[in-house]
Design a protein that fits this description.
Layout (H helix, E strand, L loop, with lengths): L2 H27 L18 E4 L10 E10 L5 E8 L2 E6 L3 E3 L5
């Protein structure tokens, strides 16, 4: 097997792994519930999250930690500030994927 074929095989396996991880594992992490009437949010300060990007593959999503919550008038947190290695970002909570970490 030459180097090009080997590289293409490795890239295909990597792409397949990330596609399955995105489809099967990440979708289990997101709790789907109606925001109206629920005051509980799984996000707290210090929660590790992935910043989901619409036009970027899941392999390139940034990993960050929630540093500030911005609740609305109704007490529901819809916006949070996340610190990554590239700086602080203000993001909608629905564009974040909470990682399940044991404390």
């Amino acid at each position: 097997m030459n180097r090009l074929s080997r590289w293409q095989l490795v890239e295909q396996l990597r792409s397949h792994f990330w596609k399955r991880w995105h489809r099967e594992y990440l979708t289990q992490l997101q709790q789907r519930s109606k925001p109206k009437g629920t005051k509980n949010t799984p996000m707290e300060i210090g929660t590790m999250v992935l910043l989901m990007e619409d036009n970027a593959p899941s392999l390139s999503w940034k990993l960050g930690r929630v540093i500030e919550l911005h609740p609305g008038d109704d007490g529901v947190t819809r916006v949070v500030t996340v610190r990554t290695n590239q700086g602080d970002f203000k993001r909608a909570a629905r564009k974040l994927c909470v990682l399940p970490l044991e404390k």
